[in-house]
Known about the structure:
single chain, SH3 type barrels, alpha+beta, 82 residues
Amino acid sequence: xxxxxxxxxxxxxxxxxxxxxxMGHSTLAVGLDLVPEVKPGDYVLVHAGxxxxxxxxxxxxxxxAAFREYAxxxxxxxxxxx
Length: 82
């Protein structure tokens, strides 16, 4: 299964092709070619190292809350991972 995960954009490179996103204490470099309108402070949906969509903050927070809730469901992980 593949997931796209919301992150907050911290900074954008001068050529606007790359940015740094954060979730909690983790940061990640991502490509921004698919979201040319994005600016620092925006929330983006990241899949396979690329920001693929700009999200409203409320949508990003709701999605992250759902991920946290699903992570606690029994049987979500494969037996060898539990």
